[in-house]
Write a structure and sequence with these properties.
Elements: H1 2-18, H2 21-36, E1 45-54, E2 64-66, E3 71-80, E4 86-93, H3 98-107, E5 118-121, H4 128-136, E6 140-143
Parallel strand pairs: 1-5, 5-6
Antiparallel strand pairs: 1-3, 2-3, 3-4
Helix pairs in contact: 3-4
Length: about 160
Amino acid sequence: MADGLQRGCRYHFRQFKLRGIWSQLLEFTAVRVSESLDKQAPPSLLAIDSQVVKKMQFINLDTGIDGGKSVNGRKRTILVDTLGIPWSVKVTAANISDNQGAILAVSSLKGKAPSLQKITADGGYKTTFVDYVTREFKWEVEIAQKPESTQGFVPKKNR
């Protein structure tokens, strides 16, 4: 019984993914939450970052080893507004660079963010991603870097 339920859930999840329903739900929810808080939707400012998640048992999707963190798994790249509401989420193998994952994530915003003016990011995005965003979308990318003399966590404006 449980095995059939799992197959049914996997089937419907995959159908939602293939038909773009998950991205439509994400966009719909983000707009509704922003409007309920009297914020501009879509936003003019987004922040981007990624996180590597360790591979779990029975995962047969694309995985890889993140060279910087030596983690075998998947990488999720997320663009959020100043409220923390996600506007784009992309999951890739962990060995995909931050820049390439970010290009995939920001490409899904095409036509969905007419008021977007700026994306804030950390130093991991200062090469290919900046060039791509300014060339393709004409958006500003602000790279937030902490001074070399500081140690530990340093909060950044708009991040």
